[in-house]
Amino acid sequence: MSEKKPFYITTPIFYPNAKLHLGHAYTTTLSDIIARYHRLVGDHVYFLTGSDENTQKMVDSAVKEGKEPLVFLDGIVENFASLYKGLDISYDQFIRTTDQKKHWPGAQALWQKLVAAGDIYKKAYEGLYCVGHEAFITEKDLVDGKCPDHGTVPEFIKEENYFFRLSKYAPQIQEKIETDEFRIVPESRKHEILSFIQNEGLEDVSFSRPRKAAWPQGLGIPVPGDDSQVMYVWCDALANYVTALGYGQDEVLYKEFWPANVHVIGKDILRFHAAIWPGMLLSAGVPLPKSLLVHGFITSGGKKMSKTLGNIIDPEELIEEYGGEAVRYFLARHITPFEDGDITRESFKEIYNANLANGLGNLSARIMTLAEKHLDVGTRPEPAGFEEEYTHALESFEVHKALDFVFTKVQALDRTITETEPFKLIKTEPEQAKKIIFDLTQELYSIARMLNPFMPETSEKIKAAVVANKKPENLFARKD
Ligand code: MSP
After folding, report:
1. CB atoms near residue 84 (< 10 Å)
2. Which residues line ligand 1 (CB under 6 A)?
3. Which fold has domain 344-468?
4. Residue among 21, 24, 29, 133 to mutate when testing ligand 1 (max atoms within 8 A of CB)
5. Which tens digits make up the pLDDT trace of 312-324?
6. Whole-prediction pTM
7. Domain boundaries in the chain?
């Protein structure tokens, strides 16, 4: 066990039925910033992400492309990995729910705990199943007979399933959320789930499906003791947060890192994470995660970014043109995590030019050109702690505020240069000018340190330039 404070952070596991778009990249980038911040302040961080593979929609996509599902999956997962490389995502593990060595036995161990608690029972069931949601939906959710989110007609399903007694845990879940023992951030999402529990209650959930003969061998985790059934995909998927740590098997990681400090999710999957997941954990006698960070949607031109609407921005295109650091910067500063945030190619370009190329990039070059010319040696400023405003923002997941704080410093340095004109002063008052330039380098170093969670490479480049007393290499050179 490490002496450092453990910090376990997770992203949702993404459906690998298509390439990830900027909305998905947002969740992962936000999580990465929080993970890097905690490493920076000395915590022992474990950062998990992955893919949710045992799903019907994945099989449908594979069939459409004429590929074997498992071959199709490998291709998509490779695409995830290259996107994460482009965005410099510092994950410690990528879990795939088709992993039969770790995930399956772990999920089955969890299932057996639910059985032991008397919370799994068999029931004949009929209902409307939306493949897009991977969940049953009700008649009253439909618009013109279709799921309004996916524009598809749900399947009518009549079958015998295992159910999970979620209703039993409603009062406990409610209490843990109310008291913040299981903290939901922001408050508005906490109220949303609490009023849902109060007004509609929590019904038992269908937790298995009959195994489909057509599914490739291996797809869907067999229900322990009943091979004719596979676990419901959300039961399987949610379990990833503990199976990745070796739950039910080799529990070294599990012992150090569970309960998770934060699960980062989008607002569309709040109920699964704030009702079903805590219900499963309570039933299994496993402690609940400490918090759930629920972010809004990335929209483009005012509409939710989605394949159906055709307004997807491919993060790889932006990375190719502007670099991964610029994409990280945009997502961190110009999207407010607790609300929906808009991006268009035009707004991205404008902000890139104003704040990065002409802002931070230009400032670093100006200061270090002066330093290279007039100071004898570079200096490594003593690392001090971080200012309260910065740490407070990051501790409360308000990454945009932390970055606003850093950029206020960037502007302040720009002003200092304009007001003191060290490049002129050097001719008349060389000592005073050198002092000003020296102080500017120290401030720049401190800015670079604070940039670490947001733009790790830029942060290193600026720090190295200050230490070497040299102009940094072109920081934001855009490829047209
Ligand atoms: N597989 C489930 C999660 C299981 S976690 C145990 C899933 N996958 S998903 O690929 O559909 O979505 C994963 C996350 O991406 C969701 O949290 C969702 O909110 C996020 N995003 C998808 N589109 C988005 C935007 N346009 N904007 C921001 N995030 C959005 O759900």
Report:
1. 20
2. 12-15, 23-24, 26-27, 52, 237-238, 240, 265-266, 268-269, 297-298, 304-305
3. Isoleucyl-tRNA Synthetase; Domain 1 (1.10.730)
4. 24
5. 899 999 999 999 9
6. 0.94
7. 6-296, 344-468
